[in-house]
Design goal:
Helix 1 packs across helix 3, helix 5 runs antiparallel to helix 6 and helix 8 runs antiparallel to helix 9. The chain is mainly α.
């Protein structure tokens, strides 16, 4: 192993930390589509060298979150309307399948935990905390399906969805609606009705898609 290889190896954990910091910034809305990722600024902010920052940016590029633009460098990419539609259609397939499998595989304890998470989400209301709680709920439901390949595919998709900006759950009506939709999914899972669970989850994702598309159109008009 060369000294250069050894340095790369030792920097790998820092690269993972830098990557997670950038993901957290995306989730919190501190990074949005079109923002440039300047290695020097990020290295100073995270207290690391530029090497792990480059590694983190490469990982974000592999995730489909970052692109390189002429004269701008690494930039958080923007999604076209058709890409947003495609992402939500795939999300409906993946999470609908997860709900169907969870109806068969989830334990009663897991279902109770999902219900408790949804109650926390209801209590949070239309606040920034709703994003974390909603994500926690959907991850737990996918894990309850007991299919690691499905979980991995869903995780990859969720990272790409981060580009779209703030959660739609900051809208009071949407926050209430999402909780009610979760309840219908959970009722079907508890009844061990896989087909119904999948149907309700697909409906949930389709509503989220419509709200997101409306939000993007309004955002586009405000920028004109």
């Amino acid at each position: 192993m060369t000294m250069q290889d050894d340095a790369s190896f030792s920097d790998a954990p820092q690269g993972n930390v830098a990557y997670q910091h950038l993901i957290d910034d995306l989730r919190a809305g501190r990074l949005t589509a079109g923002d440039r990722l300047r290695e020097t600024e990020l290295a100073e902010r995270f207290g690391v060298s530029r090497t792990p920052i480059r590694e983190a940016i490469r990982q974000l590029e592999a995730d489909g979150i970052v692109t390189h633009l002429p004269r701008q460098g690494a930039t958080i990419r923007s999604l076209e309307y058709v890409e947003v539609m495609d992402l939500y259609e795939m999300r409906a397939v993946l999470e609908g399948t997860a709900a169907r499998l969870a109806a068969r595989a989830a334990s009663d304890i897991e279902i109770d935990e999902l219900c408790a998470m949804n109650e926390e989400l209801a209590a949070a209301g239309a606040t920034p905390e709703a994003f974390r709680l909603n994500r926690q709920f959907h991850i737990a439901l996918t894990n309850a399906a007991k299919n690691r390949f499905l979980a991995k595919s869903t995780q990859t998709l969720q990272k790409t969805l981060l580009i779209m900006g703030p959660t739609t759950l900051i809208q009071p009506e949407r926050a209430i609606g999402a909780v009610q939709e979760h309840i219908r999914v959970l009722d079907a899972i508890r009844a061990r009705d896989g087909a119904k669970a999948e149907q309700e989850m697909r409906k949930h994702i389709e509503v989220a898609q419509r709200v997101r598309m409306r939000q993007l159109r309004l955002q586009e008009r405000s920028e004109d």
